[in-house]
From TrEMBL:
Alphabetical keyword list: DNA-binding, Transcription, Transcription regulation
Domain HTH lysR-type intervals: 1-58
SUPFAM superfamilies (alphabetical): Periplasmic binding protein-like II (SSF53850), Winged helix' DNA-binding domain (SSF46785)
Pfam family, one: LysR_substrate
Family matches, as PANTHER family: HTH-TYPE TRANSCRIPTIONAL REGULATOR BSDA, HTH-TYPE TRANSCRIPTIONAL REGULATOR YBHD
Lineage of origin: Bacteria, Bacillati, Bacillota, Clostridia, Lachnospirales
Superkingdom per UniProt: Bacteria
The protein's name: LysR family transcriptional regulator
């Protein structure tokens, strides 16, 4: 099998379509189909399940994907190392991020990084914590932003603390006349809850404080959660970073006791990064790592 065949396979997976992959690779659809068929014949098993609704990876294809990504990432690392030896800073870095980092940090990172390293291109993938962790582990992205509590067994470099806040509708009647929201005040409240893959830190906070949340509202994205709260259907816990420039009319209270999530940057192997990946990794740390993050337990 050739690197081109691996590139075809990876692109078909990313695009979910032979036709879209052919457009990206500037190949004919028949050439893409032939490359996949030749791979399957050589391997002795099918990589994709084909149906009227589209294509999906077979179990064998799922297992093979991380290895093919690793081969292609190694090729990219080799190109970057050669460029570095020639005194150039070139390459492509694929970055995974969750919603609030994407909306608050990524444009600034793209601009500031391009000014210093115009030869290195960034590709951004937005998803949930679970998506980003999966992408890192399977070589789909080179590095990703996660919270420390959602990283699992992935190595992560903590960058900053992001305080958790209680978000309530404007009509909310607070039991205590204070500027903070206590655990006891929240016990009797209806919550708008997100899936744990989206808000692992909030679910952790609820468990640690024995807040047994009962909710009829199970949503994925931050804005939908806050929109439901704004209409008076419950309260929610949100990181401070999410609440910047929110278009909905709500009230926000710091938590008592205080709580936060720790945002960090993660790579599969910190000791082995391609030159361009290492350059971006250092750039992010210099830009966002806070001095007081060292006391994170």
């Amino acid at each position: 099998m050739t690197l081109l065949a691996y590139q075809v396979f990876q692109t078909v997976v990313e695009q979910g379509s032979f036709r879209k992959a052919s457009e990206i690779l500037n190949l004919t659809p028949s050439a893409v189909s032939h490359a996949i068929s030749a791979m399957e014949q050589e391997l002795g098993f099918s990589l994709f399940a084909r149906s009227k609704s589209g294509i999906s990876l077979t179990n064998y294809g799922e297992k093979l994907l991380p290895y093919i990504n690793a081969v292609l990432n190694s090729e990219e690392s080799l190109k970057q190392a050669v460029s570095q030896l020639n005194g150039l800073q070139q390459g492509i870095v694929k970055v995974g991020c969750f919603s609030s980092v994407c909306t608050n940090w990524m444009t600034d990172i793209i601009h500031s990084f391009a000014e210093e390293y115009p030869g290195i291109k960034l590709e951004i993938y937005q998803g949930t914590y679970a998506d980003v962790a999966y992408w890192i582990k399977n070589g789909i992205v080179d590095m990703g932003f996660l919270s420390v509590s959602s990283a699992g067994d992935l190595p992560i470099e903590p960058l900053c603390k992001d305080p958790l806040l209680c978000v309530v509708p404007k009509t909310f009647s607070k039991a205590k006349a204070s500027e903070k929201m206590t655990i006891e005040e929240m016990r009797e409240c209806i919550f708008v809850s997100q899936m744990e893959s989206t808000d692992a830190d909030i679910q952790k906070f609820l468990r640690e404080n024995n807040l047994n949340v009962q909710s009829a509202y199970h949503v994925v994205d931050d804005l939908s959660t806050i929109a439901i709260v704004a209409e008076g259907f419950g309260i929610c816990i949100m990181p401070e970073l999410v609440m910047r420039d929110i278009p909905y009319s709500v009230d926000v209270y710091p938590l008592e006791p205080p709580a936060c999530r720790i945002i960090g940057i993660s790579v599969l192997n910190p000791d082995f990064m391609a030159p361009a990946v290492k350059t971006l990794y250092r750039h992010v740390i210099e830009k966002y790592k806070k001095e007081n993050i060292s006391d994170v337990g």
